[in-house]
Design goal:
single chain, 329 residues, mainly alpha, 2 domains, two-stranded antiparallel sheet, 16 helices, 4 strands, 50% helix, globular, binds zinc ion
């Protein structure tokens, strides 16, 4: 990549591409050419500009920059549970500031597109989320950063002491999930632990009625209440980062991946969101409250939870599942 600037570790392809055009280092790589390719490809069909190495957009962009397909390798997908690009709005403010200092423009990182990445492991702060729906563009980072500054009273809630204090627990859960997700990339590995993580997060983030969703009643996700499987899958993909952070932490506590010393503060952090329902007081009660489903669907989920946790010895998980399954016994 001699003619272009190197990507940051984990930078999104579209973000890096935007930088080449916005701040050309060597030779002329006009931004409008890249934007034109993007718009032209968008009109022909929807595509993932960041993770689909065989898309026409990637081929034409690489050609424009006189790069080969192997130069795209550093952008290859490192996470499998991706938030669809029209729902991506999470970012680390401090990362943006660092990028601006380094490159003059903010950049987007791939890990911000992952469902369970909700804190910045470089700056040890929670990711922020911009409200609203975006028309995804190559200049997404610039747009989010601009929005933050235009409406920072809405977007920026000063990180509370509790949230910062819960950072070690949040980071350890995030790192654990990243390890589990990566371990299944090699073939033939049992993926039940990964599927269990996904199922728990989906249950917590079930639109409208899931327990975390119910703690944020003003931010409903519009869904058809009849479509159970659809809703189960869409919840984590369309939920904002604050909700995903709670679901991830709850899942980590159930799976017992938080150090004993970090647990009390993590539990206090969770309870600060829930002074009314006491969902988070004990694992069996949490399981009972998390089962917001009709009897048939609750039974299906309960069967899956039992199956996926068959080889795991963990009293917290057992308590959760017995609470979840309780009314069907
Ligand atoms: Zn950061």
């Amino acid at each position: 990549m001699s003619k272009v600037s190197e990507p940051l570790p984990n930078e999104l392809f579209s973000s890096w591409l935007f930088r080449q055009g916005a701040i050309p280092r060597v030779g002329k790589l006009p931004l409008y050419d890249l934007v034109e390719i993007y718009q032209d490809c968008m009109q022909k069909g929807d595509f993932y500009p960041d993770f689909d190495q065989y898309s026409e957009f990637v081929s034409r962009s690489l050609k424009q920059l006189e790069l080969s397909r192997s130069d795209f390798d550093s952008f290859s997908q490192k996470c499998s549970w991706l938030i669809p690009r029209y729902y991506r709005g999470a970012f680390c403010y401090h990362c943006f500031c660092d990028h601006i200092q380094q490159f003059k423009v903010p950049t987007m990182l791939a890990e911000w597109c992952s469902v369970f990445h909700t804190v910045c492991s470089i700056h040890l702060v929670p990711l922020l989320d911009t409200p609203g729906v975006y028309n995804y563009k190559l200049s997404m980072a610039l747009k989010l950063f601009g929005y933050y500054h235009a409406a920072n009273n809405i977007v920026f809630k000063a990180h509370s002491g509790l949230e910062i204090e819960a950072m070690p627990a949040l980071l350890s859960v995030q790192a654990y999930m990243f390890r589990v997700e990566n371990s299944i990339l090699s073939e033939g590995v049992d993926d039940s632990k990964w599927r269990l993580i996904q199922l728990l997060i989906r249950v917590f983030l079930y639109p409208r009625h899931g327990i975390i969703t119910s703690l944020f009643p003003k931010q409903a996700i519009n869904t058809d209440t009849q479509l159970f499987r659809y809703n189960l899958h869409v919840g984590p993909l369309a939920s904002n980062v604050a909700r995903r952070r709670l679901a991830t932490l709850l899942t980590g506590l159930i799976l017992d991946v938080v150090e004993d010393g970090d647990r009390p503060i993590a539990e206090r952090y969770l309870r600060s969101f829930d002074q009314r329902h006491h969902y988070f007081d004990n694992f069996s009660g949490l399981g009972r409250s998390a089962n917001v489903f009709t009897q048939d669907r609750g039974r299906q989920l309960s069967t899956q939870l039992i199956e996926l946790s068959r080889n795991i010895y963990n009293p917290h998980l057992d308590g959760f599942i017995s609470g979840f399954s309780g009314r069907f016994r």
